[in-house]
């Protein structure tokens, strides 16, 4: 059961120095009103100007090769930077997906030309990506996607519909999972391929979907016979499933799975520290124990990624535990409203709390549901 | 050092599996196999892994004992193995020669009176007094913690009737001779040591509890298929795995701080996290086992009862949460993020 092991990784002096450097940069940016800390900012708060500033600092595409504009730093260094960005509630949504998973996917599977064209722009914070996995009829059952890419003379014809694509309206590209040959009877994972789709091409329409909080961050993206060049195929034809599985390990294991609402926790403690000292230390102690354990697990997964391991199961552990932690965290702060009634909280804090409460149901949906995470774990345990 | 530890783990596993049966776990009365098991354990030096060389120990750093303790709990060793290791460690750290044989400790004391090198009072929740009468207790005298070593001769024993699968006793002693008494320096914190080893024992037991659950659900057939094929069951077992993974992460973060004793925060986090996990595993493992898990004949309850007992020893989750929460909240110059990343 080695998937249960999360070897402990120490934060070295160099990493702590990097952490402080990022922290100083961010606190200066807050002081200069360059951004207001917000909750769930990696999904909801996009600011291309800010993304460019982060890129200029060398904090995007950190582990990418230098010849494509990357910085050849470690996955652990990237981890430190992402943690600081999340904890400060910085507006990172524009570049988040490109930096987290799409860039790595192109570096692993893309053509030389694609790497030269796209990777430098990602590292500058100028090129953004959306995820093209879910469809109106394919959510958790990803292998059932119906979007189809058909070979034509000198390329592909793409036809279908993707949904819940966060940030597609701001993005330059979408990596689309599509069927390139019919599913085999006993293996539906065959015949899927990934495509690197330039969203400025003709016959693509992107329509925003208002979520229950009233914001439009996700979209439905329609591909109505979009003509793709031959090299839009990302990786190997028919190997889309195994490529997607690797991408999901990057998507699921990061600190955004438990730091999405850290800004709320931080503001709450800032406001009510004295009250908590009198009657809330039990609760805060529990939060610290859970959060610190999650940080260690996620950091450990970063080192597995660094060592080219495939921590898909460990990523599922982090996501499942992280989602659960955030839900209970928000709920426990609510329980403290017996001491300080909600309507007496400062309005900024009330807003953060209401945002968190409204958004929290999406935590355990996006990036794979709780049920899918448990299924992955059960498979590793030999139960299915 | 890594190799030495691997060899120790292999030796331990061999010795444990040579003797241990489930029946043995409930045979408290000097069963010959149990005594042979103990002789082997002592002969292989397993009770002196973290004892100094001058007392014929292996002199490994404190945290290297944790994988061994974890394994002994996973295999359900029904002896005061962990207790003896800890007592020997205290002797050694105080530059005293550890006695041979099993030693146990009192988790708590009441009404202690000491005069003329004699001690009277109540020793509470002392494990394995059926197998040994050598006891260590840590007692505060004039605000200073003291290490006291006694051999119980004619104290009155009360077998505790609670959820424990390990035998435990309350002991009332009258004018019992003190064999050794020493001031404990501040860097030896009995409560911290106890919390760490109980957490390691919990992690070991939880591994066993999950293995038992997987095996049982794979074999048990209902409605024409094995229980493990039901998604409801799969998800329950996955939930146990998630909790174990978190406990493992908390434990392995101690294992690398080899040189000194782990920090207060890390100990608190470990005891809280494993305590929470243990609570969930007890409930879920019994649920998926059905009535079979509720019998004494089947192994599961031996391990879940131990989990129940260990999560309450040396401070339960609430106790440590309060300490951890206060420790942060009182540092008013630090934000939570600064505290977490410190």
Count of DSSP H/I helices of chain B = 11
Task: Categorize the overall geometry of chain B.
Answer: globular
Helical proportion of chain B, percent range: 40-55%
Number of strands of chain A: 8
Q: DSSP strand (E) fraction of chain B?
A: 15-25%
Count the E strands of chain B.
Answer: 9
Largest sheet of chain A: 4 strands, mixed
Segments of chain A where pLDDT lies below 50 for 5+ residues?
Answer: none
The run of helices and strands of chain A is HHHHHHEEEEEEEEHHHHHH
User: What structural category do the secondary elements of chain A indicate?
Assistant: alpha+beta
Question: Major sheet of chain B: size, sense and barrel closure?
Answer: 7 strands, mixed
Q: State the end-to-end CA separation of chain B.
A: 29 Å
Strand arrangement across the biggest beta sheet of chain A: 1-4-5-8
- Give the integer mean of the pLDDT values of chain B: 94
Rounded Rg of chain B:
21 Å
Most extensive chain contact? A-B, 54 and 51 residues
The proportion of residues in beta strands of chain A is 5-15%
The number of helical runs of chain A is 12
Radius of gyration of chain A: 21 Å
Walk me through this protein's architecture.
The complex is a heterodimer of chains A (384) and B (342). By secondary structure, chain A is of the alpha+beta class. Chain A is 48% helix and 14% strand. In chain A, β6 and β7 form a beta hairpin. Chain B contains eleven helices and nine strands. In chain B, strands 1, 2, 3, 4, 5, 6 and 7 form a seven-stranded mixed beta sheet that branches. In chain B, strands 8-9 form a two-stranded antiparallel ribbon. In chain B, β6 and β7 (168-183) form a beta hairpin. Chain B is globular. The two termini of chain B are 29 Å apart. In chain B, 47% of the residues are buried. Chains A and B meet through α8, α9, α10 and α12 of A and α6, α7, α8, α10 and α11 of B.
């Amino acid at each position: 059961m080695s998937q249960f092991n999360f070897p402990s990784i120490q934060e070295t002096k160099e990493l702590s120095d990097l952490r402080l450097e990022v922290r100083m940069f961010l606190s200066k940016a807050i002081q200069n009103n360059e951004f207001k800390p917000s909750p769930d900012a990696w999904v909801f708060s996009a600011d291309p100007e800010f993304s460019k500033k982060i890129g200029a600092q060398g904090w995007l595409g950190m582990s990418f090769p230098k010849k494509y504009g990357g910085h050849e730093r470690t996955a652990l260094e990237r981890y430190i930077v992402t943690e600081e960005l999340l904890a400060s509630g910085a507006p990172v949504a524009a570049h988040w997906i490109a930096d987290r998973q799409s860039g790595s996917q192109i570096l692993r599977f893309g053509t030389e030309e694609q790497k030269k064209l796209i990777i430098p722009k990602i590292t500058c914070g100028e090129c953004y990506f959306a995820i093209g996995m879910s469809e109106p009829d394919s959510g958790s059952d990803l292998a059932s996607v119906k979007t189809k890419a058909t070979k034509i003379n000198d390329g592909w014809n793409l036809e279908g519909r993707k949904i819940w694509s966060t940030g597609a309206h701001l993005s330059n590209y979408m990596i689309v999972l599509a069927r390139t040959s019919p599913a085999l009877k006993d293996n539906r994972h065959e015949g899927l391929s990934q495509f690197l789709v330039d969203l400025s091409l003709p016959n693509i329409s992107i329509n925003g979907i208002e979520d229950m909080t009233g914001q439009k961050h996700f979209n439905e993206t329609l591909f109505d016979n979009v003509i793709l060049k031959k090299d839009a195929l990302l990786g190997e034809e028919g190997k889309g499933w195994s490529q997607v599985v690797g991408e999901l390990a990057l998507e699921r294991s990061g600190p955004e799975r438990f730091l999405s609402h850290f800004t709320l926790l931080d503001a709450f403690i800032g406001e009510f520290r004295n009250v908590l000292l009198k009657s809330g230390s039990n609760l805060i102690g529990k939060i610290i124990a859970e959060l610190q354990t999650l940080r260690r697990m996620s950091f450990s997964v970063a080192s597995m990624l660094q060592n080219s391991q495939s921590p898909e199961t460990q990523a599922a552990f982090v996501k499942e535990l992280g989602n659960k932690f955030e839900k209970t965290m928000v709920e426990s702060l609510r329980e403290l409203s017996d001491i300080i009634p909600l309507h007496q909280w400062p309005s900024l804090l009330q807003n953060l709390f209401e945002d968190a409460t409204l958004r929290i149901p999406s935590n355990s949906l996006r990036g794979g549901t709780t049920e899918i995470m448990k299924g992955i774990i059960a498979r590793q345990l030999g139960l299915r | 050092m890594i190799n030495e530890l691997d060899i120790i783990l292999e030796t331990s596993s061999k010795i444990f599996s040579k003797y241990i049966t489930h029946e043995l776990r409930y045979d408290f009365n000097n069963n010959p196999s149990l005594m042979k098991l103990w002789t082997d354990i002592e002969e292989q030096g397993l009770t002196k892994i973290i004892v100094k060389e001058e007392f014929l120990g292996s002199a490994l750093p404190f945290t290297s004992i944790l994988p061994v303790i974890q394994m002994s709990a996973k295999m359900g060793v029904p002896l005061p193995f962990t207790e003896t290791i800890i007592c020997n460690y205290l002797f050694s750290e105080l530059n005293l020669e550890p006695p041979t044989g099993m030693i146990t400790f009192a988790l708590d004391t009441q009404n202690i009176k000491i005069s003329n090198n004699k001690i009277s009072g109540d020793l509470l929740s002392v494990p394995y007094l059926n197998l040994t009468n050598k006891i260590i207790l840590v007692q505060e005298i004039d605000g200073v913690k003291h290490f006291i070593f006694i051999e119980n001769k004619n104290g009155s024993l009360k077998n505790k009737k609670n959820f424990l699968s390990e035998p435990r006793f309350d002991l009332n002693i009258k004018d019992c001779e003190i064999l050794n008494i020493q001031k404990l320096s501040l860097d030896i914190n009995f409560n911290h040591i106890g919390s760490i080893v109980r957490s390691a024992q919990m992690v070991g037991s939880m591994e066993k509890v999950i293995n038992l659950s997987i095996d049982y659900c794979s074999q048990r057939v209902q409605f024409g298929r094995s229980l493990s094929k039901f998604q409801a069951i799969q998800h329950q077992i996955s939930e146990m795995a998630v909790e174990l993974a978190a406990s493992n992460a908390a434990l392995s973060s101690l294992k690398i701080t080899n040189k000194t004793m782990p920090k207060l925060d890390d100990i608190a986090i470990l005891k809280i996290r494993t305590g929470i996990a243990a609570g969930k595993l007890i409930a879920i493992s019994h649920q998926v086992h059905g009535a079979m898990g509720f019998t004494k004949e089947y192994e599961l309850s031996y391990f879940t009862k131990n989990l129940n007992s260990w999560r309450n020893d040396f401070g339960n989750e609430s106790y440590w949460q309060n300490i951890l929460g206060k420790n942060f909240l009182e540092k008013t110059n630090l934000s939570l993020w600064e505290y977490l990343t410190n």
